[in-house]
Amino acid sequence: MNTNDPKIKMPHALITIGRQFGSGGRELGKKLADAFGYKYYDKELLSEAAKKAGMDPGFFEKNDERAPSFINGIFSFALGLTPNNIYTGSTSISDDSLYRAQSDFIQSLAEQGPCVIVGRSADYVLRDNPRTVNLFVHAPMDNCIDRIISREPNLSRDKAKARAEKVNRLRSNYYNFYTDKTWGAANSYHLSLDTSLLSMDDITEIVREYILRRFKD
Amino acid sequence: MNTNDPKIKMPHALITIGRQFGSGGRELGKKLADAFGYKYYDKELLSEAAKKAGMDPGFFEKNDERAPSFINGIFSFALGLTPNNIYTGSTSISDDSLYRAQSDFIQSLAEQGPCVIVGRSADYVLRDNPRTVNLFVHAPMDNCIDRIISREPNLSRDKAKARAEKVNRLRSNYYNFYTDKTWGAANSYHLSLDTSLLSMDDITEIVREYILRRFKD
Fold it and tell me: Which residue, A55, A161, B34, B171, shows the most beta carbons closer than 10 Å to its own?
């Protein structure tokens, strides 16, 4: 099987991407969607899609991959974070029902066709769907700092590192609270990759190979 | 690039495999070595190689991926394991110097050419070598139990599960004690895969794709 032939039609798959902050999850997600002809969703695009569907436009911003307030309160306290790190969204519905509404919306998007979804514990939301391909991407901290600074050149390396650590903690709290798995543990995902050793184009082709072999039928 | 052409010569790589018990790490390792023309080493073959080199034949059995006695003593006690689970090898050298000797031996094998090494925290031993490809393989517990029972048909599912959990704890203690990384965490490895969703032949081709793309020069 020559799986490298770009003319091969990609099978139906739902790619979810978990990622360490600064490891290039969104960049990879966009590339995969582009290369495979899948739809792409991250926080902004999920918000937009929710808006189009007539829902609250702040729908995905409000519950920004943070565990419910009391959990982050405990963690923030323990970690010595300042109070404005704590989720204080003024939504009128509870964190839990917001999470459920987001999950229902992700489910409805997945029913519309193949797509790439970055974050939102979409792997867990879509866990009963056999077409999911759950990716996790990571990179050594120095590489993550490089990528963060390339987006925000005025940031010092120390500040970029502190931000990466904080966002990773929030993502981990959110994921571990809402799922029965552990964020960043290899066995929570189908395929995990270090993004510092290959170009995003090469990683795209490795994921293509994975999908073509997994969904041969 | 048609990376699926089996006639393409595989570049020099040192594949290390970390694995959950029952997830097929050895089976995959043998397949990779076979398909790529690399040497293959697991515990038995490392012992044999050590013997050939004129070293103690029990060299690799004695320190069987267990952290030093006092560490396992603590864990065994906490887990209610029986005393014979605790490492009590009657070697005259300390666990630490045994680990160092094993590491030196793995280094010397790696210098002889491309190879696949299963276990022994070989990823950490060879961490300064840019040709390492550090894999971790895992599978849902039910699949691991299936594989364990296929090797030992008289084992009950409960006993197979208990063994998998115990061996995973020992591997984790060993790895976390001797390295600065976390066993089973995606970011401790370059590429992690769930072996329950693809055949070992397909996984072999995905790893081939990975290696050909990573070492293009």
Answer: B171
